[in-house]
Amino acid sequence: MSEAHFESAERQADAARLGMWAFLVSEVFLFAGLFTLYGAYRAAWPEAFAEGVRHGAKMLGSLNTVILITSSFAVASSLRALQEDRPRVALRWLLGTLALALGFLAVKAVEYHGHVHEGILPGGHGHHFATLSAPAGQAAFFTLYYVMTGLHALHVVAGAAVLAWLAWRLHTGALDARRAHVLSNGALYWHLVDCVWIVLWPLFYLTGGQA
Amino acid sequence: MKRRDVGAFVALLTLTGLSLGASYVPLGAWGMAVALGFAAIKVSVVAVVFMHLARSPRAEALFALGAVVVVAILVLLAAADVMTRT
Question: Which of A10, A13, A188, B80 is the most buried (most CB within 10 A)?
Fold first, then answer.
């Protein structure tokens, strides 16, 4: 491979990474709108939001925080292994990441099932809200809860699909150390999904104190 | 596996534990600030270490920084509106 050719491949990898960053920034804007909405509604109904957080599945949410942080570490380790030209090790870390992604979704399913069983549905529907004297604030809280954690869960599904595709490419040998930037872009997306959850966790599971 | 990544992983787990612990302490209005403070530090650790922001080309860091600035404008202006309504 000529040196000029190598330089062009480097440029291509740089451009691909920058394109991924542009996409990540647009994802941040998408969630920023929802975070702003959360802030405005929380300011309007501080006590109802704190009550909603106290009603949430704190342990399941915290378990999912640990799962996603571990998965971020796993995908970072996968990228390191591929960059060091150890594709088999990279594949094992990537499969671990994928398993954690599916674990996150399983925990989320248990959590949603529990809330539906309690009569908590989006839009203030369900028998839980009929027991409240002033249901508007909690209806807003749980609607935002379903929309924001649901949108995040969709990102986990998309991320898991990308991870599975990358794992397949690693397995067949189509993805090797020379094309590590492809795995790097998948890892960047997965880290963003982790970052969004890191901010969702305190908003919906931790901040139940009286404000 | 690199020590840098392991260090970030251990730091993230520790910060998660501390944040969970702090949520049981009655901090009143400070509870939200403390919880979001922990979240901001954790996001920074992920961005700098796992996403290699510190060692990436300047354009990538500029994109990330630009996002932070624009989101800060959005949140601060919205907060100014909500907090000054009568």
Answer: A188
Give the relative orientation of helices A58-83 and A87-117 as an angle to the nearest 10 degrees: 170
The CATH number of residue A149's host domain is 1.20.120.80
Range of the domain at A167: 3-206
Number of domains in chain A: 1
Chain A hits for B71, Cβ within 8 Å = 28-29, 32
> What is the tens place of the pLDDT at every residue in A77-93?
999 999 999 999 999 99
Across the interface, whether the CB atoms of A43 and B16 are under 8 A apart is answered no
Residue A110 lies in a domain: yes
- How confident is the model over A137-177, as pLDDT tens digits? 999 999 999 999 999 999 999 999 999 999 999 999 999 99
A211 lies in some domain: no
Question: How far does B34 lie from chain A, in Å, by closest CA?
Answer: 9
Evaluate whether residue A200 is within a structural domain.
yes
Query: Are the C-beta atoms of A91 and A171 separated by less than 8 Å?
Result: yes
Q: Quote the ipTM score.
A: 0.94
